[in-house]
Design goal:
It is a single chain. The chain is an alpha+beta fold. The chain has seven helices and five strands; from the N terminus they run H-E-E-E-E-E-H-H-H-H-H-H. A three-stranded antiparallel sheet has the order 1-2-3, covered by helices on one side. Helix 2 packs antiparallel against helix 3, helix 2 crosses helix 4 and helix 3 crosses helix 7. The longest helix has 14 residues. It is globular and about 55 Å long. The N and C termini lie far apart (about 45 Å).
């Protein structure tokens, strides 16, 4: 997989800087945009080498690309949408990245997502890691992140100009639509307003 990715990307983006750590391999590319004025860009490709299971099974999806420098189509193996969102829920709990909240809130807004299935897959993934996360634990964890300036600023460089990111609204969406499906009682501390 790593050789195939590098064979495809290196000729276009230059030689990657890469590192291997426990559970993942990361390739980093630095290059200039094709649009004028040319802007320095970075691309990070991260391959999870630790997890090789799917609670809901793998799915085949058609994928196509049409651009001025490449066109192609392939069927790719991927996860069910609810499983992808469950991994975002896990990432939101385990990391301090606003992008996880953004992705999760956007996914929950998709009519194809099912909050009950997301919560079930999240519980199974956490059990597999030997961790049990209750509703109160998650609510307290999220409350501590939403007020953090660094957590909220994480998305600013990733969004197109003019797109307004409202982390409080996203947190409310997740807190109302998904977190109550986790086991246990609500958190007794201060809640998001």
């Amino acid at each position: 997989v790593m050789d195939s990715l590098r064979n495809a990307l290196d000729p276009r983006l230059g030689e990657a800087r890469w590192k291997q750590s426990q559970g993942r391999v990361t390739f980093g590319y630095r290059f200039l945009s094709e649009d004028a004025p040319a802007m320095p860009l970075r691309l990070k490709v991260e391959i999870n080498t630790r997890e090789h299971f799917a609670v809901l099974g793998f799915k085949r999806r058609a994928f196509s690309v049409e651009s001025r420098w490449y066109s192609g189509r392939a069927d790719i193996a991927t996860f069910d949408l609810d499983e992808l969102l469950a991994t975002k829920l896990r990432a939101l709990y385990q990391r301090r990245k606003g992008r996880d909240l953004f992705d999760l809130a956007m996914g929950l807004a998709d009519q194809r997502s099912d909050a009950s299935r997301i919560a079930t897959v999240f519980r199974k993934c956490m059990e597999r890691e030997g961790a049990a996360v209750t509703r109160a634990m998650f609510e307290q964890n999220l409350a501590g992140k939403v007020g953090d300036a660094q957590f909220n600023a994480d998305m600013s460089a990733l969004l197109r100009p003019g797109f307004e990111w409202r982390p409080e609204e996203a947190a409310r969406s997740v807190s109302e639509g998904l977190i109550p499906l986790l086991p246990g009682e609500p958190w007794k501390g201060e809640t998001q307003g």
